Every structure is written in structure tokens, then in C-alpha cells.
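Following up on my earlier thread - several people asked me to post the actual chain instead of describing it. Fair enough. Here it is, all 169 residues.
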Amino acid sequence: MATINVAAAQWGQPKSLAVPEADGYVEIPNAALPPKKESTYRAIFDATRAADKPGQLLPALNMAGSELNALAAVAVPVQHAKFALVFHGLAVDGILDDTHYKTKFGTSNPNLKVIAEMKKQSVEFFVCGQYLASEKIDPKTLTPDVALAADALLVLMQYQNMGYALMSF
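Reply from S.P.:
Thanks for posting it. Predicted structure:
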């Protein structure tokens, strides 16, 4: 029987300079369209999915954090990252304050520290008022770091009208 020798690529270590809890960024030598220090990156993250497990970050929060890590790894100035997240659907559980999260899931909310870190980097956070109203969720049970918006879809439209790329997680 013949043995196939497959060589593994030698990749660098992922860097998580901006948001340590989020996925890190591996610099890719000679990559097409690498991040540029002089560019401004605008993205609105549509956060609808819950984490697979209560101790994990919400997918949208992890992705936004990983993109901040990507930009930080190549020294793009933090003011060149214009990011916003809007939470609705199952992702709303991930923005419960720690008391309500512990009651529901039996563990501390891992998203709160990351949201606070990202706010310091001028990331904006919103939650859909229509979703809260339909599910009878008291806004007081959520982290105060997330602003109450009238409607998630209207937030998404407004940001896209301002030139923000839509990222859905």
C-alpha cells in the first residue's frame, strides 16, 4: 500500500491584540488584498445566532472581535475600524446581564467583558426593541452597554445606507 506524504503549511501564530477572547489573526504572506493601514473598514454585524455553548462568545461578537484583531495585527489605526453590532433573535440571550445570564445558563456571561473592551474601541452596540417587545424581555435584564433601538432591520438599513458592509452571524 502506498503512503501519501502531505506536507503541512507552516503558518504563523494567531494574534489577538485588540480582543484577546476573540479568534486571532494569522498574517498571510503575499496575500491578495491584505488589510491596508490607510483604509477605513465599516461593518454592521447582524447578530442573530446564539453561541453553541453558554461559555462561548456569540458568533457575531467573535467575528467582530476577530476582525479588530486582524486590523490590530497589521497596525491599522483603531479609528479606521467603524464597527457596529445589532442583536436580535437568539443572540439576545448573549447580552443578558450577568445575574440573568447565570440564572438562565448557570455560568457567567462571557460576552460582557468583550462588549466592554470593544466599546472602548468605539464599537457600537444595539438591541432590537421589536424583538424585546415580542418576546416580553425587559430591557433592564440586558447589559447597559447595548443601546435599545426601535428595530434591528432599520438599524441594518441605516448603517448600510452609510456605506457599512453587512456581516450576518
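The first strand starts at residue 41 and ends at 47. That should answer part of your original question.
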